[in-house]
């Protein structure tokens, strides 16, 4: 349901897309990895100064999000702030 609502919006900010990932993680865990991959792809495109190491760090944080949410979110916040996205 969250994905349907988001799909109808003209644009979903990267920060909001991360919230959608969190909801999918909680409500439809089988679809979480796909949502996380889409988020990483958007991060790679929108964070123009991001390096491969930054994209890898974001992907690693999203991979840990289901089991270590606090640390993973702290890392994602740091990465996004460093690149002024989300």
What report would you give on this structure?
- The protein is mostly helical.
- The protein has one domain.
- It has helices spanning 2-7, 14-27, 32-46, 52-64, 69-82.
- Helix 2 (14-27) packs antiparallel against helix 3 (32-46), helix 3 runs antiparallel to helix 4 and helix 4 (52-64) runs antiparallel to helix 5.
- It is globular.
- The model has no long low-confidence stretch (mean pLDDT 89).
User: In percent, how helical is the residue content?
Assistant: over 70%
Rg over CA atoms: 12 Å
Largest sheet: none
Distance between the termini: 23 Å
The rough form would be described as globular
Number of strands: 0
Backbone structural class = mainly alpha
- Count up the helices: 5
Number of domains: 1
Q: How big a fraction of the residues is strand?
A: under 5%
Mean of residue pLDDT values: 89
In sequence order, what are the helices and strands, one letter per element?
HHHHH
Unreliable spans: none
Brief account:
With 86 residues, the chain is mainly alpha-helical.
Can you give keywords for this protein?
86 residues; 5 helices; mainly alpha
Secondary structure blueprint with pairings:
Layout: H1 2-7, H2 14-27, H3 32-46, H4 52-64, H5 69-82
Helix pairs in contact: 2-3, 3-4, 4-5
């Amino acid at each position: 349901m969250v994905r349907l609502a988001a799909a109808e919006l003209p644009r979903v900010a990267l920060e909001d897309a991360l919230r959608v990932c969190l909801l999918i993680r909680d409500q439809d865990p089988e679809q979480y990895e796909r949502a996380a991959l889409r988020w990483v792809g958007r991060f790679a495109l929108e964070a123009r100064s991001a390096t491969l190491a930054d994209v890898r760090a974001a992907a690693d944080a999203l991979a840990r999000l289901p089991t270590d949410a606090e640390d993973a979110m702290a890392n994602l916040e740091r990465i996004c702030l460093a690149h002024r996205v989300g």
